[in-house]
Amino acid sequence: LPSSMSILVIQLSPRGRLRARSPGGAEPESDRSDGACFFVLSPDGLAIASQGHCAASLLPRADHVALVLSDDDVSWHRITLPKAPASKLRAALASVLEEALLDEPENVHLALAPQAIAGQPAWIAAVDRSWLRSELAALEKAEVFVDLVLPLSWPDEPPGRHFCHADATDSESLVLHWAHLGGVATLRLRGSLARSLLPRPLPQASLLTATP
User: What is the per-residue burial (b if ≥16 Cβ within 10 Å, else e) of 147-159?
Assistant: First the structure.
């Protein structure tokens, strides 16, 4: 990004999902976002000019806009990249991933990792297509035009650990997002599952972050 270009980074809240019903309670209701989102504005991609949380219509203007998706809204799949022409690659990916996806392939947006080579192992990111389209449409309605959509975490080395609340209204909903070469996992900290899945000892070079 040229130093003269400003960039606005928008982080979407996790997609609304049905909440579990408590014993004897009412039917679960779907979470609904109020349209507000977190943002960071940078004049050059390095320094921070401003940051905050506001409705899309109040977001500051910038030369470039990047949209960051929550770890809860992106699933990662490791496959051997099919050898197919660009015009048929989408269909080839859908065929390979059909059994791994939680929805019909036509309902999922698939993104290929940069510099992936046909015939070699590659990571594929999958996102709910209709939800992503609706979020982009809402931003465009507010005259915010996204240039790039990015995941918050991705399979990488050294690994990264991020602690946050799955539900901001529930102090017991603390989760760990664990990003490493084997993928990205969201683990609840209640119980022993996280401890059983994480390597021991933990890599000293791993990045540790948390949401305030």
Answer: eebebbbbbeeeb
Q: Which two tokens stand for residue 127?
A: 């996102």
Report pTM.
0.79
Structure tokens at 92: 């080839």
Q: Which two tokens stand for residue 56?
A: 């899309």
Residue 74 pLDDT > 90, yes or no? yes
In order of 28, 154, 191, 203, the CA distances from 200 in angstroms are: 38, 21, 17, 8
* Structure tokens belonging to residue 195: 């401890």
Chain centre distance of CA 26: 30
Q: What is the pLDDT of residues 23-55, one digit of tens each?
A: 444 443 334 345 788 999 999 888 999 999 999
SS3 for 106-119 is HHEEEEECCCCCCC
**DSSP strand pairing (108-112 vs 121-128):** antiparallel
Question: What DSSP string runs through 2-43?
Answer: -TT--EEEEEPPPPP-BPPPPTT-PPP-B----SEEEEEEES
Asked if 137 and 67 touch (Cβ cutoff 8 Å), the reply is no
User: Sheet of 36-42: strands edge to edge?
Assistant: 50-55, 36-42, 7-11, 64-69, 148-151
Neighbours of 85 (CB within 10 A): 8
pLDDT digit string, tens, across residues 108-126: 899 988 888 999 999 999 9
Report the alpha-carbon distance of residue 77 to residue 90 in Å, rounded.
15
